Every structure is written in C-alpha cells, then in structure tokens.
Amino acid sequence: MPLSRMPSLSSLRAFEAAARRLSFKDAADELSVTPGAISQQVRSLEDDLGISLFHRATRSVSLTEAGLKLQPEVTDGFLKIRDAVDLVRPGQATSITVRAAGMVIRNWLLPRLHLFTEANRHLQTHVNTLHSWEDLQLGEDEVVFRLAKEPPAGVYSRKIHQLLLIPLASPDFIEKYNLKSSEDALRAPLLQDAIIQLFDKSTGWDKWFKLAGLTKPVPEYALKFDPYAADFALDMAINGKGVLLGWSIQCYHALSQGRLGCPFGPVMELDLSYYLVCHHSAAKKPHIKSFMDWAEQAAAILSTLKSLHLAAT
C-alpha cells in the first residue's frame, strides 16, 4: 500500500493503545488525551477501513475478529518505529544480561528478542536461564523475569503481565474431538503440568473446572508433567495429544502461528504476574530502562488473549 493510502498514524496509534489495553480510558491516559478523542480516532479508522474493530458495551470494549488480526501487527509496527528511532541514539552501554525461566526464553523471548537486538547493535545482549530465584546473584547490568504473586522485595520491579491460563489444543485435535464448549473437557484427553502447584496446592485444571461451573470431577489426565517439564506438555498439545491449560506467555507464539487453538472458554486470570526485576541503581541506566520499556510494551500483546473468540461456556 502506498504511504498516501495508509490510515492516519494518529488513528492507528489510538487503536493500538485501546486494543492493547481493552479500554478507551486507559488508552487516553497513556496518550495524554481524552477518552472522547480516542473514540473519535478509532471511529475514524473504522470508517476509513470500512469495518468494525471493537464490540462496544456500556462499560467495556472487546476486539472484533478484524481487530484481533490488526492489533498485533500494528503493535509490532510501532515497536519497530520506536526501535528504529532508538537505533540512531548514542549508545551508553556495552552489555546487558537477560535471565528468565527456560519456558519464557524459548516461547516468548527468543521469537521477538531480535527486534530489540537489531535496534541496539551497540549493545551485547546475553540470555541466561534462571534456575532458582532464591540462589540468584543479581548482576549490576542484569534484568530478570520473575513470576510471583507480589513484587519482589529489595529490588526494582515492573509488572508486565498478569498470567492467564488458556485451554489449548491443535487444530486437528479440536476437529477430531469436535471441541466446542467447556463441557467437552469432560470427554477429551487432558494434559497437566504442575507448575501452578509450585504456588498453590490446586492444579490449574481444578481451578478451571470450578470457574467453568463444571461440578463433575476432573477426568483422569492423559499425561502428567512435573513443574519443570512444561514445554514437553506444550509440545504434546501441539502434536495433537490432548488439551493443555497453557500459560499465556508460553503459548502466544504457537497461537499466533496457528499451531494451537482455543476450542472453548473460559480464559482464567491468576493472581500470579511476571515482573521485570533489576537493582534499583540499574533501573536508572538507559540500556536497562530501554530493555524494560521494550519488554513491557511487547508483553502488552499478551493481554489480547483475554479477548479470544470463545464458544459459550
């Protein structure tokens, strides 16, 4: 599309903020304008495209199918523009170490980290696996992804995402078992990983069945995985071996590629969040702040999973 045929950047920016936050008011606060201005810009974009991007209710908004397709691409576009601007800014650091659990590195960080490194060629970026928070010796130029119920004490922390659990299966598996509603979980092979039990005595499926209003006992699991084998459970779901209650930060990439689908709801929000953590002194360094800003904005995409088009439960 020639640049002259593109919608206005202001309308795209308003849409991106509102879609990412699922709130016109929060988008207005972020962009320092009024909610009315956001609504007007979004309406202008919808008129320009000839489609609706939001379902509007009295106190909430959700994305239409077209909005769900458009939001990740527009967000990535603005990230690239921001990164391109950062590319011409003088660098002030030589290296940064990013540490996270292997599941986060494999499924969320690595598929998009090149966007940060390409925009910060002056910066050596090291990625290390986080094995134990309790044994961690936090480095001066280090940022750590930490999953916790509360912000970690004694360090600078920034909340980037509240964890979601999502029923997931491969497209072939969904078709084979004709999965359409939450009741279908009673007859489908379920995959269980035990990560949640590191924080809570209940399993994720126990919590999900209660939220879904299913009073029958949780069926026997087809396969069980210990807390450190969550990626094996994800691989089994991708390979069509059962329904997994997947982590939002773990499954977004596979969902966006169509290797997994969400056959039914509900999507469950937990009282666990991912925090970016560093020393208080490091938080003031431009390269640390730059990575945290980038990671926070990139993680905002995960909130769109709340608006997955789900069958009635």
Q: What does this molecule look like?
A:
The chain has 313 residues and is of the alpha/beta class. Among the domains are: 67 residues, Arc Repressor Mutant, subunit A, CATH 1.10.10.10; 109 residues, 3-Layer(aba) Sandwich (D-Maltodextrin-Binding Protein, domain 2). It has 10 helices and 10 strands. The strands form 2 sheets. Strands 4-3-5-10-6-9-7-8 form an 8-stranded mixed β-sheet, with helices on both faces. Strands 1-2 form a two-stranded antiparallel sheet. Helix 1 crosses helix 3, helix 1 packs across helix 4 and helix 2 crosses helix 3. The radius of gyration is 21 Å and the shape is globular. The protein starts with 8 loop residues before the first helix and ends in a 14-residue tail after the last helix. The mean pLDDT is 86.
Q: Biggest sheet, open or closed, and with what strands and sense?
A: 8 strands, mixed
CATH structural fold name of the domain at 163-271: D-Maltodextrin-Binding Protein, domain 2
Secondary-structure class: alpha/beta
The number of distinct β-strands equals: 10
With strands numbered from the N-terminus, the spatial order across the biggest sheet is 4-3-5-10-6-9-7-8
Alpha-carbon Rg, integer: 21 Å
Lay out the secondary structure.
Elements (H helix, E strand, L loop, with lengths): L8 H13 L2 H8 L3 H15 L4 E3 L4 E3 L1 H23 L7 E6 L1 H18 L4 E6 L12 E7 L7 E13 L2 H6 L13 E4 L10 H8 L11 E3 L4 H9 L4 E5 H9 L11 E11 L7 H14 L14
Helix pairs in contact: 1-2, 1-3, 1-4, 2-3, 4-5, 5-9
